[in-house]
């Protein structure tokens, strides 16, 4: 049987045609991306919000990876290098946002600014999704410049987008990644197939390391235990499977849980909500 061909990575998808500025502070881009598409690591001088209208994408930065299903969005601050891989065929909506000097997020109270200086997964309200879909996604140079009425409408929509973004609730769908190459290799293997092994001993053995060494590296590199880290991976994987409309019983089995109730207990411990609410699109 012939091996599955993985498409080569592609460069950033024409971000220069959607550059935001003070006159047009929020620019929208829409693109259809096929499964296994990979966009090479790149960065922008502006902030970015990635919203999946359909399908699932995974964005990876130096110290973590994030799953973006249709019910969520990923905030990426200015200058943060990120790579994109498509888990399920996706219609990706990207907002590029002009940032006044000294700011890296929407205008919020000073106590909240630190949270916007790092990547974060956010819930997407029905209103925010509708606003994103209403924004003009015409690239620069592809048509006549927008007329005054269109620009005024865009300004009103942009203001509402930023206001709704400030209200968006963060959700724990980020998975930290280590700098240590040995541990990074194991973490990538878990991300590819989190149910392949059930215990740290099995994972360490498969990677040719001792479980004691791996446990120590998790503590020193990520400040957590392997079990806690793997639970974050399982939560992210569960969201991907829920986006395929899988029932909870099937998701629990796929992730190696003996019963839906065992899986439900893990979700409640991790996020303080039942799977029916956490996985709802």
Protein described:
The chain is of the alpha+beta class and 281 residues long. It has two domains: 15-167, Jelly Rolls (Sandwich); 179-278, Homeodomain-like (Arc Repressor Mutant, subunit A, Orthogonal Bundle), CATH 1.10.10. 36% of the residues lie in helices and 22% in strands. Strands 1, 2, 3, 4, 5, 6, 7 and 8 form an eight-stranded antiparallel β-sheet that branches.
List keywords for this structure.
single chain, alpha+beta, Jelly Rolls, Arc Repressor Mutant, subunit A, 2 domains, 9 helices, 22% strand
Short description:
The protein has nine helices and eight strands. It is of the alpha+beta class.
Shape: globular
What is the name of the CATH topology of the largest domain?
A: Jelly Rolls
Radius of gyration: 20 Å
Sheet with most strands: 8 strands, antiparallel
- Helical residue percent band: 25-40%
Order of helices and strands: EEEEEEEHHEHHHHHHH
Strand content: 15-25%
By CATH, the superfamily of the largest domain comes out as Jelly Rolls
Task: Show unreliable segments.
Answer: none
Q: Could you give the count of β-strands?
A: 8
- Which CATH first-tier class of the largest domain would you pick? Mainly Beta
Total helical segments: 9
Count of individual domains: 2
Oligomerization category of the chains in this entry:
single chain
